[in-house]
Structures are given as structure tokens and as C-alpha cells.
Design goal:
Elements lengths: L19 E4 L5 E5 L5 E5 L4 E6 L27 E2 L27 E10 L8 E11 L15 E9 L3 E10 L5 E7 L2 E3 L6 E4 L5 E4 L5 E4 L5 E2 L4 E6 L6 E5 L2 E9 L3 E6 L1 H7 L12 E15 L4 E10 L1
Antiparallel strand pairs: 1-2, 2-3, 3-4, 5-10, 6-7, 7-8, 8-9, 9-21, 10-20, 11-20, 12-15, 12-17, 13-14, 13-16, 16-19, 17-18, 18-21, 19-20
Length: about 325
């Protein structure tokens, strides 16, 4: 006997692909990959991003072929982190005695976990997904700090978010002690290019800068985009609301937006300086990279006891 009214089938939602995150067998690096193919690789040493690839496999970051990835020294390439000082520490400051660019890039960070978001594909698009990796560093994780910083307490959460079209890196720096302290910080981003002679950087026009190649003298950028034809090491002061575009042969390649980071360092060692660096390779690698480094480095930031400072960057591959 047939029923006049059969129960309707329960619809089954399609499985939504999710980002994959894995930790290497030696617990030295974390890798993330989106269902659409974008990927990210982070060393726990320095919490250094050493690879960021687009869905087509294109690498967006330059990594020296001679970079030390074994934790023996700071990584040459990717996105090393400067904290709590940028450059050589001044002799009359609490950071005196620290290594150049501080200890963040030469410390082993803790992987705190991941969070992700996904949306189902539709007839109009392939869906969307992102994954955020969090890393932590605190004063009690450091073996020794040869400066006044040994009496300071801090906790840092470093978040790296891989989206389909962009990469976000952000800091939440907390003063967990009872003493105020000063710091500088910067994302030392090495962007991959095909030929530095065809690269231009816009968004820093008419900005004031200090030229480290010429003794730190102060100057103002021209009204045209920056091009590079020799060693460059400039520290610009630029409104964070102004985006920065790196173009090659007139075609936009990367767009960088900043949050709470008033300074931007533009660096390329050119041939002679590159040859003097034992961990820089290949020999002509300087032709295939440019550093555009958002940070807060031209002045000191004071973080009062119990307070938190947050800042970050977003790099969109165009």
C-alpha cells in the first residue's frame, strides 16, 4: 500500500572545503593552505613568514637562497620582525645591548593555534576562505636579555591571516608588568619582483624621509613615484591612511595598507652590499626583491603598564 504523502528527503548540505594547517615533524614550522591553493609557511624561529604563494603557485616573497632556516641566525628574506628596536640600539637607551633589530626575529615563538572561515561556492564564484595563525612571545620565554629589558615584562600575540587575495600581519603588544617601557617595531617585508629596474613605488610622494645611505640626512620625496637604480635605505614618515602600491613595468603588483604604522622603510642593497652579506643569495638576487617595510621606528612608542598597542599591515597581491 502506498502512502498518499511521502516524507520529503532531508536536504544534505554540500561539504565546504576548509583550509589545511599542519606542523612539521620537527616542530619547526607551520604551513597553511586554502582550498583555492593559496599557501603560507611560517618558521617558529622568529615567527618568520618564509613563503606566501598565490593560488597559481606564484611566490610573493623573496627568500635568500643562503638564508639560515635552522634557527642559527635571523632569516634573510620573507617577513622578519623587528622588536623592541629597529636597527642598531642606541647606546643611551634601555635597548642598548640588544642585537640589531631586537630579539623578536631571533627568538622561538609559540604556535597558539588557528581560526578559519569558509563560505560555500555558488554558481557565481568559487566560495571564499581564510585562515588566521596566532603566535606568542613573552619575556619568560627568552633565555637572556642583555639590557635593561630584562626587567620589563611583555606579551605579544602575532597574527598572520591568509586570505585568497592578500596576507595580513598584525601585532598586539602588551605591557604585562608594572614599569612603562619604550619600543619600536617593524615588519621587514621582502617582496618578490622580476626586475628591480622596472619597479616603482607610489603612495610615498612628498613624504619626509631619512636617508640612511647618506648618513641619515633628512629629505622630502619628489612628487613622482620612487624608482630604484642604486642602494636605497630610506625611512619615510607617511600617513597610514595612504596605501602604497608597488608596480612593475607600470602594472600594479602589490598594494600595502597599514594600521597604526606611521613609518615605511624602503630598502634594496644593490650589488655591492648584497655581495658583502654572507647569507644573501643568489648573487644577483637583489634584482628580484624590494623591501617595503611598514613600522613605527622613527620615534619611540611608550607603552604604559597594563596597556596594549596594536598595529599591522595588509599586502594584496594584484
Amino acid at each position: 500500500m502506498e502512502r498518499s504523502k511521502k516524507p520529503s528527503a532531508i536536504p544534505v548540505s554540500p561539504t565546504i572545503p576548509t583550509p589545511e594547517v599542519s606542523i612539521s615533524a620537527d616542530n619547526s614550522r607551520v604551513t597553511a593552505k586554502l582550498p583555492t591553493g593559496e599557501s603560507l609557511e611560517v618558521l617558529l624561529y622568529g615567527a618568520t613568514v618564509i613563503s606566501w604563494k598565490s593560488a597559481n603557485g606564484k611566490e610573493n616573497l623573496f627568500l635568500s637562497s643562503k638564508a639560515h632556516l635552522d634557527g642559527s641566525k635571523a632569516v634573510r628574506g620573507g617577513i622578519p620582525l623587528a622588536f623592541p628596536v629597529f636597527g642598531p640600539p642606541p647606546k643611551d637607551h634601555a635597548t642598548s645591548g640588544l642585537p640589531q633589530h631586537g630579539f623578536a626575529r631571533i627568538s622561538r615563538w609559540e604556535y597558539l593555534g588557528k581560526s578559519s572561515s569558509e563560505s560555500a561556492p555558488t554558481p557565481m564564484n568559487n566560495g571564499d576562505a581564510s585562515v588566521k595563525l596566532d603566535f606568542g612571545l613573552s619575556n619568560d620565554m627568552l633565555e637572556s636579555i642583555p639590557s635593561e629589558w630584562k626587567s620589563y615584562q611583555f606579551g605579544i600575540t602575532y597574527s598572520i591571516t591568509l586570505n585568497r587575495e592578500d596576507l595580513e600581519t598584525s601585532f598586539a603588544i602588551r605591557n604585562t608588568g608594572d614599569k612603562d617601557w619604550e619600543f619600536q617595531t617593524l615588519f621587514h617585508t621582502y617582496l618578490a619582483v622580476d626586475d628591480i629596474s622596472h619597479v616603482s613605488i607610489s603612495g610615498l610622494e612628498k613624504s619626509a624621509y631619512k636617508d640612511a645611505v647618506h648618513g641619515g640626512r633628512s629629505a622630502h620625496a619628489s612628487s613622482s613615484a620612487i624608482t630604484i637604480s642604486s642602494e636605497v635605505d630610506r625611512r619615510y614618515t607617511a600617513d597610514p591612511s595612504q596605501s602604497i602600491t608597488v608596480s612593475e613595468k607600470g602594472k600594479p603588483k602589490y598594494e600595502i595598507t597599514r594600521d597604526m604604522l606611521n613609518d615605511v622603510v624602503v630598502w634594496n642593497p644593490w650589488d655591492a652590499k648584497a655581495k658583502s652579506m654572507s647569507d644573501f643569495g643568489p648573487e644577483d638576487g637583489w634584482k628580484r626583491m624590494v623591501c617595503v617595510e611598514p613600522g613605527s621606528v622613527l620615534q619611540w612608542n611608550t607603552l604604559e603598564a597594563g596597556d596594549t598597542w596594536e598595529g599591522g599591515q595588509r599586502i594584496k597581491a594584484l
